[in-house]
Give the backbone structure.
Amino acid sequence: MLAGNMASSSKPSEQTPAALGFSMPAEWEKHEATWLGWPHNPTDWPDKLDTIRWVYGEIVRKITPGERVRLLVRNLTEQKLAARYLQRTGGSLKNVEFIVHPTNRGWTRDSGPLFVRRTRPKAETAIVHFHFNAWAKYDDWPKDRKVPETAARWLKKRLFKAQCQGRDFVMEGGGIEVNGAGTLLTTEECYLDPQVQVRNPGLTRADYETAFRNYFGVRNVLWLLNGLVGDDTHGHIDDICRFVNPRTLVLVQETNRREVNYRPLAENWERVQDFRLEDGSRPEVVPLPMPAPLYFDGYRLPASYANFYICNAGVLVPTFNDPNDRVALGRLGELFPDRPVIGIHAVDLVLGFGTLHCLTQQQPA
């Protein structure tokens, strides 16, 4: 069944996280920390790098009241620079931990440590290494690929190296979404396209589902079709569809029939009608609006309210100076009654083809 596959016939391999009782918690579960990488690559934000540093200051200021921020910096000079920006934005460094690790870029959702957790025989978290390769598109990734190894050493955590069919299995945190109860969500465009940005040449849908089960401890894999036009990752799920609780999805919706995203997003709405959760029930699906199109230097940007980040102290939502900012914030406010929903100006951030969720990575408590 394309929409999902209940109760896998592929049992977890020996010594995978799933075989040892680990699974990936949902993002809204309690965090120990959020990982970020200090922005330094001017090609990510042309002529805007200094502006982005101030945006980072605001992000850190909103996260640190509820949890630690672990901030990757390339060297001690950059650490001093980052500390100065963070302090001048009114934040406190008391809850910020600097980790010196050279990086190519700063998209920590994709290159950073992905955590799994188990409760027996003792409560423990571990890291899975998914061998980041810059979305099978760019060549500046070797330093970023080593971030999970650095994190495992720093935290003294077990490190699992993801494998499938006897070789490294490549994927990114922005390409999957879990509800913490056994279901994982992804897109065909990102991982099953045989020609564009192919992370794992030759792997089939069944291979991907086996790897997802082995390394995330899920039982049920759901596939949407396409991501947003302009998405540099070729179809990451975190720009289009997110879990907000174990039974509820938000799915972006374009209502303008003349808009280039209208048809691919409408196809996702058709597909989601067939979805079933791990217990066989239908998820509730709530629409999120799309902002008006944003362009930079002729490029369509993947502006989306779905790229929000759930931290202990709130839900950080990208905003775009758009009338639908208010609609999106209000809708998410209703869906997260247990914490404040906070808009973060992201017109500059999205010049890098990603916003809040793309930059952050949660470390579960």
The domain at 31-364 is CATH 3.75.10.10 (L-arginine/glycine Amidinotransferase; Chain A). Residues 205 and 356 are 29 Å apart (CA to CA).
